[in-house]
Design goal:
alpha/beta; seven-stranded mixed beta sheet
């Protein structure tokens, strides 16, 4: 059984792939239950938003608008999950999208959804590591990453690869959680549970990520603070994890669910507390090559 004071194992590609392989059924059942979104991210609650589904689609719409995605663009979805955002872009904008993921289970589901939505010729999914891709220099007009760069131990390595495969004037758009300040001593336990439960090595601080983008060569970088827009999703996730936790604990003791799944619950509880405390926020970085 997982003990709350255990540290997370080494976060490598194999562990991240296992995390998503094991947790996918739970994400799709308890979060992304609508076939139109097929998304695993937080989503944005705007005026008039009535459901998680609408919030998820709002985020796709916002990111595509600020990145200026056109039907003639080639887009890389770096860490594509089960393909929700790529399929949305292909269907609603008409751009050509390639999605990459480390998870075999996610990849299988993403391919099924592409066929189901008749988007197989426009939207393609394959196994891949966004730090070491097989794509040629200057291959894409847009690199899109929603809540995936957080899995990179050194975020600058992702940024270097994104810069390499982008064409001149290509755009990078990253939506993710960021540290707003260093954790205080009483907050360290929350932060550690969050990292352990989501297979994360760390979270980047906003200033550090901005400096990394500049160092790599991105210009005109902009940051959009969307913390308020995700707070309702953070609370909903917190409430669902709080309810499920006692049952998950028993199931873990009985060997019905593995540690890697069980630890996800405490992470879902911790994330809302950290947002409320102003320790973690949610933002979007936009930059141009």
């Amino acid at each position: 059984m997982f003990k709350m004071d255990e540290v997370n194992p080494i976060i490598d590609k194999k562990y991240i792939a296992e995390y998503y392989d094991q947790t996918l059924p739970y994400y799709t059942k308890f979060w992304s239950r609508d076939p139109e979104s097929n998304a695993l991210h937080y989503g944005f609650w705007e005026n008039g938003t009535k459901s998680v589904k609408e919030a998820l689609l709002n985020e796709n719409r916002f990111l595509s608008e600020i990145a200026g995605i056109k039907s003639t663009d080639k887009v890389l979805d770096a860490g594509c999950g089960i393909g929700g955002s790529g399929l949305w872009i292909g269907k609603n904008i008409g751009a050509t999208v390639t999605g990459i993921t480390l998870s075999a289970r996610q990849l299988e589901r993403a391919k099924e959804l592409a066929v189901k939505n008749n988007l197989g010729e426009r939207v393609n999914f394959c196994a891949g590591d966004y730090i070491h891709t097989d794509f040629a220099d200057n291959s894409f007009d847009v690199v899109w990453a929603i809540e995936s760069v957080c899995h990179a131990e050194r975020k600058i390595e992702f940024l270097k690869e994104a810069h390499r495969i982008l064409r001149k004037n290509g755009r990078l758009v990253v939506a993710d959680g960021f540290l707003l300040r260093k954790p205080l001593s009483p907050e360290r336990n929350l932060y550690d549970k969050f990292l352990a439960g989501l297979a994360l090595p760390n979270l980047a601080q906003v200033a550090d990520f901005r400096e990394n983008m500049k160092e790599v060569g991105f210009v005109g970088s902009r940051f959009f603070d969307k913390t308020d827009a995700i707070k309702k999703s953070a609370k909903i996730l917190y409430e669902r994890c709080l309810i499920a936790y006692p049952f998950a604990r028993v199931a873990n003791v009985l060997g019905l669910i593995p540690d890697i799944v069980f630890k996800n619950g405490p992470a879902g509880i911790a994330q809302y507390k950290m947002v409320k405390a102003g320790l973690v926020g949610y933002g979007i970085f936009l930059g141009k090559k």
